[in-house]
Amino acid sequence: MTDVWSERAEAFRTSATHREGPDLDLVVEWCEPGEGVQALDVATGGGHVARRLREAGCEVVSVDPAPGMRPTVVAPAEHLPFADRSFDVVACRIAAHHFDDVRAALAEMARVSRERVVVQDNVFLGERVEEAEKLRDPTHVRCYSEDEWREVFAEAGLVVEAERRFERAVEVEPWLARVETPAQDAARVRELLADRITDGRVALRSIVLKGRKR
Ligand SMILES: C[S@@+](CC[C@H](N)C(=O)[O-])C[C@H]1O[C@@H](n2cnc3c(N)ncnc32)[C@H](O)[C@@H]1O
């Protein structure tokens, strides 16, 4: 898996939907950035959350299991190599659906945070969408419903202080090209998602949750 992500690194660094957007703005705002705030960006990918937090004055460490993403530290979310309460805030954007164990990952994020954990991820929209997502990208594990996300936060000892939904109209062809879905699988993905595609864009949804340690 790690090598696959390293090969994709440049595509995720330049991807328009990852680089900017109101969802990224909200993740950054809910991190409560500022001079001297210590932040961890988990599954940093193209480094967009880390970059924005640095621009806002934070001291940022980024972590990702794929060396090609050029994180500060190479590690999976399920095993964060940091002491308890090392950061004021831990952020994780559009990545948890790739984690083998989302509960272990959230427990780790809560453990290494002194106060806040901010997570954005795509929301579960049914088994057809899951099938399409896995076909598009075999590293997809699973998206979770809004209720499941609340449970995962609660189990990690985090009180959900705010949450917001984003309806995302994602351009289908760049979305397939970014992870190099083979043509035959891409055709099946378009078929599975046909009722969600309008004008070349697929309607997906994400949620941003802001948690505070109990
Ligand atoms: C879509 S990218 C992340 C996007 C990025 N956070 C952003 O805001 O642009 C998904 C990332 O998850 C990472 N990843 C996959 N499995 C992981 C795991 N178990 N723990 C942490 N990161 C993982 C991949 O290496 C990849 O960099």
Mind explaining what this structure looks like?
The protein has 214 residues and is of the alpha/beta class. It has a single domain, classed as Rossmann fold (3-Layer(aba) Sandwich). The chain has helices at 2-7, 9-14, 16-19, 22-30, 48-55, 102-112, 127-136, 146-155, 172-178, 183-192, and strands spanning 38-42, 59-64, 73-74, 87-93, 113-122, 158-171, 197-198, 201-213. Strands 1, 2, 3, 4, 5, 6, 7 and 8 form an eight-stranded mixed beta sheet that branches. A hairpin with a 2-residue loop joins β7 and β8 (201-213). It is globular and about 45 Å long. The mean pLDDT is 97. The structure holds S-adenosylmethionine (SAM). The site of S-adenosylmethionine (SAM) has 22 residues, from α5.
Short description:
With 214 residues, the protein is an alpha/beta fold. The protein is built from ten helices and eight strands.
Mean pLDDT: 97
CATH architecture identity:
3-Layer(aba) Sandwich
CATH topology title: Rossmann fold
The parts where pLDDT drops under 50 for at least 5 residues are: none
Tell me which ligands are bound: S-adenosylmethionine
The overall strand count is: 8
> For this structure, what is the CATH class?
Alpha Beta
Number of helices: 10
Span from first to last CA?
A: 34 Å
Assign the structural class, choosing from mainly alpha, mainly beta, alpha/beta, alpha+beta, or little secondary structure.
Answer: alpha/beta
The Rg value, from CA coordinates, equals 16 Å
CATH homologous superfamily classification: Vaccinia Virus protein VP39
- Number of structural units classed as domains: 1
Largest sheet, strands/sense/barrel:
8 strands, mixed
Q: Could you state the order of secondary-structure elements as H and E?
A: HHHHEHEEEHEHHEHHEE
* Morphology: globular
Bin the strand percentage: 25-35%
